[in-house]
Amino acid sequence: MSLKGKWRIVEMEAWDKDFLDLVEPAYILFSDTESEFAFGCVTGSFGSVGDSHSIAFDWGGADEMDEAHGDGWAELRADGSLTGEITFHNGDESGFIARRWESSSTAC
C-alpha cells in the first residue's frame, strides 16, 4: 500500500472538527507531481511522494490568506489509516489521523 491518493483528515490534535471542515472537507493529497493539504483556513503544498509508505516534507502555503510554511510527516498504519503531523514554522503543530477519501461522499 502506498501513500499516494487523497486522504480525508478526520482528526487533528490542535483543532476541532468544526474548524477542520470550515472551508471544505479537510484532506491531504499525495501525488507523483505535487502534493497538498487543506484544513480550516490553511492550505499547503509540497513535493511528490513516489510509492513510499512514509514521508517527511517541508510545505509552503497560506493560513487565512497570510503566507505560511512549515514541515510535516505522514506514515501508513497497519489498520490502513494514515497518521502524521503538520507543523507551522515558529508556531502551532498538530498530529492528525486520516482515512482514504471516499469519492461518493465527503463524510467519513
Low-pLDDT windows of residues: none
Principal-axis shape equals globular
Overall SS class:
mainly beta
The DSSP helix count reads: 1
Instruction: Give a count of the beta strands, DSSP E runs of length 2 or more.
Output: 8
End-to-end C-alpha gap:
20 Å
Domain count? 1
Characterize the main sheet.
8 strands, antiparallel, barrel
| Strand line-up across the major sheet | 1-2-3-4-5-6-7-8
Order of helices and strands: EHEEEEEEE
The amount of beta strand, in percent, is over 45%
What Rg, in angstroms, do the CA atoms define? 13 Å
Summarize model confidence as the mean pLDDT: 90
Helical content band: under 10%
Q: What would you say this structure looks like, in words?
A:
This protein has one domain. An 8-stranded antiparallel β-barrel has the order 1-2-3-4-5-6-7-8. By secondary structure, the protein is mostly beta strands. It has 1 helix and 8 strands; from the N terminus they run βαβββββββ. The chain has one helix spanning 17-20, and strands at residues 5-12, 27-30, 35-39, 42-46, 54-63, 66-76, 82-88, 93-100. The chain starts with a strand and ends in an 8-residue tail after the last strand.
